[in-house]
Amino acid sequence: MALVATHVHIDHVGRIPWLLAAGFKGPIYCSEPSARLLPVVLADAFELGISRDRRLVERYLKMVEARIRPLPWRTWHTVFDTAEGRCRIRLQRAGHILGSAYVECELTRSGEPPLRVLFSGDLGAPYAPLLPAPKPAYRADVVVLESTYGDRTHESRATRRQRLQAVVEKALGNGGTVIVPAFSIGRTQELLYEFEDILHRQRLKPGRHAAAWEKLPIFLDSPLAGRFTGLYRELQPFWDAEAQAWLRAGRKPLSFSQLISIDEHEAHLANVRRLSRSGEPAIVIAASGMCAGGRVMNYLKAMLHDPRHDVLFVGYQAQGTPGSAIQTFGPRGGYVDLDGERITIRAGVHTLSGYSAHADQNDLVRFITRMRHLPAEVRLIHGDDEARRALAAMLRAATDGRVKVMNGD
Ligand SMILES: [Zn+2]
Fold this sequence. Notes:
It contains 14 helices and 18 strands. By secondary structure, the protein is of the alpha/beta class. It has three domains: 1-71, no CATH class; 73-153 and 358-409, Metallo-beta-lactamase, Chain A (4-Layer Sandwich), CATH 3.60.15; 157-355, Rossmann fold. Zinc ion binds next to loops.
């Protein structure tokens, strides 16, 4: 028995502790970058959910690390080969977060032709910062495809960068803070990359707000996001061609001079106090991404009532989370309850859809139609009912009914 981890987001690896507790002794296969990120993700989840006892955390990590088997990209690896049959897997870049993979799995029973099943994991959008776009597979018999954004299309890269810039420039004018609730892995590093690019462009071709941009501090107020940003920097050889070119040109996409990481809790509290009163413009990136806990809560409690500040959502806000309430009621001057405190929202509230890290409807359809040989069957997973239904209809139309699409209905 073996486990294949497509990428290290917690909704894909969060149950590994239970698997180990149940006696799983097999290998955990993943890409080389994922092998570096996974222990940090699992240690954090362990500390949050089970225990902060250093000894227990260390022991658990040893157990995990002993199981991890990093695999190079695009290379077949035999999982088992017995008299009854054989199973080989191959990882391909999925472009979703660093190290994310889709998995080609080839199953051979003696005397039968091999069956190739592709598991998409989460697929990224093309033009995601730092990551090469996922390339469709050559062939597969069955594709198990995610459908998170199966009913939506994203803004283009240029549009979303302009909108990001516009939201920040509004704040530059009124001396407020732009609070960006963000997830620690993936989204945070994409945003830093985009901010570095805006700063770079402002220096090359100064706009109206160039002077303000030059002084603007960008706070990364999340120790975990800071650790992942550090790991992303170490994993530079896995960045895409654009990011490599920027490095060669002397740029530092994830460690530019205006980026200030805040680690200590005291420093965090002091930053909240200072920014809520000072009138100096600033950007703060803090977790959690859906405002359900984490340091972003202190910023929101101190700033949501004040129209000088802005909240910028760059990721999906699940129903029932404070993030979703702020996103829905904020623009109408409504309120939100945070830790039992009712706060009227006077800060500006904005949403950018382009930074989703997930392929949109067009990308998902192309992932199938651009395969050299169409699969006989596509099974849709990882999306709500509407997304799956809409994507199924698009896929059937795009392949003239030649592909059997199962959407779980
Ligand atoms: Zn994911």
